[in-house]
Amino acid sequence: MSLTPSQKAATINEFRENIKLAGLTRQEICADLGISETKLERVLNLHQKSLEDGWILKNYLLAKVEEAGQKPVPFTALKGDPEDHWFLDVEKIHNGKMTPGDA
Asked: Could you tell me if residue 101 is inside a domain?
């Protein structure tokens, strides 16, 4: 499944807004997820090959925003249960471990 240009722009903005609400730095996110800053930028800008990585980041950010006592900005394209999307590897998403490398 591909996102439309407007869905991509919205998702990129939703990632950034939730990072602000959580009060996280990029370095903190990378350390928590065990990824490089290059990989984080690829995921944030929807250039990552693995579709699951975006969902993992989404779930991580939603949890961190709630931990910060804030109300998360809802995701308009990455919504619902990943199990409802046949093209996603749900086990990878629930595991919360992003794919290795920067691609």
From this structure: no
Q: Domain range holding 67?
A: 5-93
Helix, strand, or coil (residue 75): coil
- Chain CA centroid to CA 81, Å: 14
Q: Is the pLDDT of residue 1 over 70?
A: no
Domain presence at residue 102: no
**pLDDT value, residue 89:** 74
> pLDDT class for 103, splitting at 50, 70, 90?
low
What total number of domains does the chain contain? 1
- Dist. CA 38–CA 42, nearest whole Å: 6
